[in-house]
User: Fold SteA-like C-terminal domain-containing protein from Corynebacterium jeddahense.
Amino acid sequence: MVCMTVAPPAGEPTMDPAAGTLRGTLRDCTPQGKGLGRLGEGDIAFVDAPDMSRRLAEQLVARRPAAVVNLAPYSTGTLPTFGPHLLLDAGVPLFEAAGSGMRAKIRDGKKVTVTPAGEITVGRKAAGTAQPVTRTEVDATFSQAQRGLVENMEAYFGNTIEFIHSEAPLLIDGVGAPELGDIMAERKVVVVSPAPDTRERLDGLKNFMQEYTPVVIGVGQAANTLADMGYAPDLIVGDPTDVAAENLRSEAKVILPAEPDGYAPGLERIQDLGVGAMTFPAATESPTDLAILLATFHDAEMIVTVGQPVELDRIFADSANATGTPATEPAALLSRLKAGRKLVDSTVIEHLYTVESGAGVAWAWAILGFLVAAAAAILIAGLGGDGNFADNLVDTWNAIATTVQSWFK
Assistant:
């Protein structure tokens, strides 16, 4: 009898039968990597997906990986997502909380080993440890997230009802909003709020700003960002302690958010600088929401928001902070509902102004180059022939036309 050892087909994982250790090709499926498109059966996928969505899980299941290692927890306990359930139902071993430090150690296409305890080796180097995930843990976290979501939503919409009770005149008819004349009437308005990507978003709006010259509202510290980038805000809304003195002294109208009793934080700074300002009393601490309402009540044609968007998932996930105030205030939802169809996020405008280069553009440039060359040749011939300019021009044109016709015979 002859004993033979058969190697597993390329791409399939190997497993130590005694220890259950998985070995396969690493695929970097994090947002920074491009491994999802190359992920195949038997590969080991590395993702960075807290509260993994059902959509991502379906994409992974379809490629039949040997295991999925998540740098983040599959569920943070805030959103009851179904992603980890789908992967476990498909029989895919899961590991989580490998940590952000793992990001620098993973290399797409490298050989990787994952032990049952979650010890990870990339190539021949130990890369870190992740926690094995069990169905019991996933079910428990899912139930906790469901309970938390219900409690959070009950509190959020309870606060929303209270805000409507206290600010119905403002929401319905703009009672209490400062009068600014027709500065925004039938014009496009850009509301710029502080955010980590504010500069990047403004860069994407350059063409829009040049074409339409919209009214620009700087919210809080974003007024400084606008000035640094060469934009002069028409209005500044926010606590003046967040805004540089030279920007407060500019031609922009300054509007201070105030409490319902009329007290406006930062009023002393305005008085010290000798700057004129108006107050906007409302039961919200968000100057962005007040800026959106201002544009709405002053008949803006379009309101483009630059800054942190308000999204349903974020409202779902927001838990009360130390002061007991939700991170997304009810005013954020109501102000955007009031603006209605006028409101659009800046990223949408960016996409409209993005032109993808392709074969059509290349052909257009080629044709333009040919026409310019032909025009130059005709002009030179017209000026340099034996006859007068008109005769030389006609002779040159006839010669070119005859040559072109011969190409199609």
